[in-house]
Structure formats: structure tokens, C-alpha cells
Amino acid sequence: MQKSPIFRMVLLIWPFVLLDAGICFARTTASLSVEELVTLNRVRSVHLSPAGEHIAYRLTAPRGLSSDAGQPAIELYVIDLQGRPTANYTGALQIGAVAWSTDGERLLFTGRKRGDHSTGIYSLSPGDGAVSEIYLSERAIEAIYPSPDGAWIAYLAAAPKSVARSQLGARDFDVVVFEEDIPDTKVWLLNTETGVSQRQHLAGSTSSLAWRPDSKTYAVSQAPTGTADDDELARDLVVVDPADSQFQKRMGLVGKLSHFAWSPDGKQLAYIGGEDAADPNPGRLFVIEIDSGKPVSLLADYPGQVEDFHWLDNERIGYIGSRGVWTEYAIASSNQSSLQSPAPDGGPILRSLSAGSDVVVAVADTPDHPPEVYRLELNEEPQRLTFSNPGLAKKELAKQSVVRFKARDGLDLEAILVHPITTNGPALSPLIVFAHSGPESHYANGWLTSYHTPAQSLAAEGYLLAFPNYRGSTGRGVDYSKLSQNDPAGGEFDDLVDTKTHLVDAGMADAKRTGIAGFSYGGYAAMWGATALTEHFSAAVALAGMSNYVSNFGSTDIPNEWFQVHSLAWPWDDWQGLLQHSPIYYAAETQTPLLIANGDGDRRYHPSQSLEMYRHIKLRSETPVRLVVYPGEGHGISNTQAQIDYALRLVRWMNHYLQGAGGTPPPFEVHQRSTFDETGQ
């Protein structure tokens, strides 16, 4: 298969600022403060009109502490192909799903008011920005899909509550029946002429939908139930006749499933899926003939992971691929075998794309800015179209680089380094190793700063930050992503120590002032670093991590996924073996001060995992430990004020134990400063 040249992503400096939607930083400090980095705007998704004339995008816009420190606003903007703004919606509604009408005359979007479960479908004119309501649903609408003929708007929403459940709610009383009362997501069809909505009676729970080009059928991603385990492992592609809600054809897919789309002639479905049932992440590109029903892998030996794609014509598919710490945009063909291209080495990191007739746009970020909108064209340098944080131009940002080295067993490893902005003269830099979540994910050499990885603020404090892609990471092919299976906390976390060793041996980092931090599976790594690997780390911070491999099977919402693509063993097959892969097992040995944080509604790693770690260290050692619980938060933190609180605690914990007095933990209170001036601007 012949590929087009890979797009080498190059940041273009435009002579004008297109959208002044960003935070106006009141302080003039050279580097980003924690409050500033948390409240940066980020492009969330991009949507190109069918004719390629307009680009719509959603923007996540956190509010400063003196304004609204709750959930960030989600705003909607429309620009032309040169990046000039044509319309926007920044009103009282939180923007949800976005889709263009087939004729491109209207931008359809869903919105709801804060705290309201009902959702409306609205229409925005890209010319004058006029907004009108099309339909108001009593249920929260998750996604919308206009039919190609314009007759229907399919949307996804939860099945209605039973009469008994509704009566309980009417009496201001409710009860949770664990997992049994998780509502299935159903397909609804809204008649665009009559305004009447009707439910499609499909068995199971739907997560995504794509209309066939003739509008006579649609394909859905269907799972038996709405549980997280089924969502992860049991999704199949199904073709449905909307006239009678009957399944016309099941594809019989095995493994994880992601994005899918029809070919222009409606004869093929392309999808991103797992190579097999044990593939940790969907990252292979397949095409399936609807008549024959046999999937064909277009990039069978691809040494990376396919992230997103679109059909160019009935044979060619343009796709985003992650290759190590970089990304590429390339072309695959459904009737030719693939040819490998050189690995990409530079440019913005492509996250998702949208395509029209002859135009491709993408969400992308670089070490210099969070996600923005880019325009892609073959054989041309990509153009950055949005500048959502103009204040960043006034900030000094840390240098970022990529290092490659070998693990102790000879495996090739990669890590991204964020270098210190300030240094203490000739002294070696204190080091913090950030372990990514998943483990079926990876770090790319783009914007690495977030509330749980406050890299730019830490660099300003003099730290060297390392973001390694340890074995089990994605982006280097399926075999690499499987290297950590049946070996939790083994070679994968030894790779984190080997990252430290490489930087120490290179004369870049101080071996005695090294910390470790992470979120989710990275939180597990941080707890492991603080206990089983305590001699290597002088401070640790774990957000929403796992401390007990055995009890996690009984408390997580994905026990089957955990078995199938991670442990490959059940606790009852080897109780002692899995216990020895648990940080609590080594709690008595820890000498690493550990800060633990979690949301009280976390279902992935139940808050009890954090409590177990805290309690074991308190009972079995004299080592400093602190547990912070965020009410109303799930797996991770979404509230802006809570994000700032966590980031401040992380920075202060590291400062105290890697550059400060150490000993007794710092005070448990933190002080948050507003990112806004007195006028709230």
C-alpha cells in the first residue's frame, strides 16, 4: 500500500490573534503559576462542515476563583478556514454534542443548564450566530447524529426510569441498587419535520452511531449492558433498520472497539479495534465488507497505534497514528497491503480530526500550548488556526526534549523531559518521575502540563520532570503494550527506576532528591514507588491509585477488563502472588513520605484503595502520610477549585521533601490565589 508523505507537524506563528477567549493573566511572573495552568483554555473537539467552509470547535474554559470555580464552561465557536471567527455560543448552556446538518447550513448542538438533567438540541447559524431551539428532552442527550437525507436526528440518551423509580424520586427519596440500576443508553429518532421523537427498541446499550450514506440503515456500537466492563470488552458493531429497530447484521467483533465510519458508497465499515481479546487498547485499523462480514486489518504490523481516521474515498483512509512520543497523519488503502514509513520526529501532537470535501482539520498541541485547532493539507505545513490562551505568549515556558535509553534488561525506552527553568547553580536538579495512567496509554511530546502533572510550575521551582513510556504503554505496537501483562509492578515499574538511573548517570538529576507521582494506574506506580521501591524515591504523590491488587478486584467497576488485559489471573488462583504485587504489602518498609488523594465517588479505584494505603502506613510505620478526599469527585478531579487544590498540594509536598526541611508534613491547609485581577477580567 502506498502512503502519502507523513505530515510533519510544524508550529506556524501567525501575525494576528484570532480569538481572545483565553484567560487574561493579571500577574506578570515569567512562569505559569498553578492557578494559571489549571485555568488555561483547551480545544475539546473540532467539527468541519460538510463542504469544508466552516470549522466548529468546543472550548473548555475554566473559570477563575473569583468568578466560578466549579465545572469549567464548555463553549462553542465557529471559524472559517483562515481562522477568522464567524459565530460563537458562550451563553448559559453547557455545550455537549456537536454535529453539522447534512447541507452545512446549520450547526446542531446539545446544551443544558448547570445542574439540569434535561437537554436541548439547538441550531446555530454559522453566518450570523443566531441560535434556535429544535427539541427539548427530559433526558440527558449524550450524542447527536443527523441522517444524510436530513429527515432524522438520531440521538443517544438513557432509557426512561421505571414507574417505581420515578415515584421514589417524586418523594425526594432514592436508592442505589448496585450495577443493576445502571441505565442502558438507547437510540432515539427525532423527526425533523414533525418534531416528534421516538425510541428505537434495541437490546443492550449503545455508545455510538453512524448513518449509512443512503439513510436507510445505521450502524451502532452495542454492548449487552451499560456497565463499565461491558463498555470496555463486549461491544459489537451492529447494522440496524430504523423502520423496525431490528438488527440486520452483527459483525461479531472481539476485543475493544473505538471509532467507526461508513465508506462513501456504504459498502464498508472501517473501525478502530483491538488486535485480539487481550489487546489492552483499541489501536488497529480494520475494514469490514458488510456483505462478507470479514474484517481486514489495514496496518497489521503498524509499530504504533491508530487514534482517529476518516474516509477519503471508497478505498483510501486518512488516519492519525501515534508512533512513540510523536504522531503522524498518513493514508491507508483498503485494497493494498501497507508499507511502513519512517517514524515521525517532531511537530504538534495530533489528538483527533474532522474532514470535509477536501479539507482536514485536527485538534493538536505542542510543548508551547494546550490543544488548539489546526488545518492539515497534503504536502503542506499544517496551519494553526486558534490562539485560545494569548497570555501564554508572556510566559517563560520550560524546554522539552526526548531521551532514549535502555532498561536493565536491554529493552529500548523513551521518556520526555521537561527541563528546569531555574537552577541552583552547579547543583544537580531535583527530579520528579511522572507515571502515566492506563497502563494502556502513553505520553506524547506535546503539552504535558495539567492539574495532576503541573510540569511548567514545577520546572519554575527548579525541577527536572521525566515522563517515561514504560513497558505496557501504547504507541509502540501491540506487543509492547502487552509486555506488562501478568507482571504487574514488575518490569513496568522497574522502568521508572531505570529512567531515574539514566538521568542520574547522565549528570542531570540528584539521586537523593527524586520524587514520583501519578494518577490512576500512575497512582498505583507512585504507591509502589513509595513502598516496594522506597529506596529510590524521597517523596511520592498518588491520585486515585490502587494499593491492594486483591481487594481491587472486589471493588473496581472493571474486574473482567482487569483480568483479560492486565493481570491474566484471578485472585483466587494466586491470592499470595497478587497480594505481593500490592503496595500495602510493603507498607511497613516505606521511608518515602506519601501524599494520597482521591474522589469520594471513584468507581475505577474505589476510595477504599486510598484509605487502605493510608491506614497501613499509619499503623505499620512512622513515615509521613496524608490522605485528601474530594467530595463529589469520581475517578480524577473535574472541579476547577479542587484541581487547583490538588496541584498546589502536589507542588508543596515535593518542595517540602525534595527541597525543603522535610520531616513533619506541611500544614494541611492550602491557600489558593485568584488568577484574575480585581475586576474579574
Model description:
The chain has 681 residues and is α+β, with helices and mostly antiparallel strands. It has 2 domains: 359 residues, Neuraminidase (6 Propeller); 262 residues, Rossmann fold (3-Layer(aba) Sandwich). The protein is built from 12 helices and 35 strands. The strands form 8 sheets. The chain has an 8-stranded mixed beta sheet, sandwiched between helices. It is globular.
Write down the overall geometry. Answer: globular
Strand tally is 35
Number of structural units classed as domains: 2
Tell me, what is the CATH class of the largest domain? Mainly Beta
Mean pLDDT: 90
Number of continuous helical runs: 12
The low-confidence parts are 1-28, 675-681
Largest sheet: number of strands, sense, barrel closure: 8 strands, mixed
End-to-end distance: 54 Å
Architecture (CATH level 2) name of the largest domain: 6 Propeller
Query: What is the CATH topology assignment of the largest domain?
Result: Neuraminidase
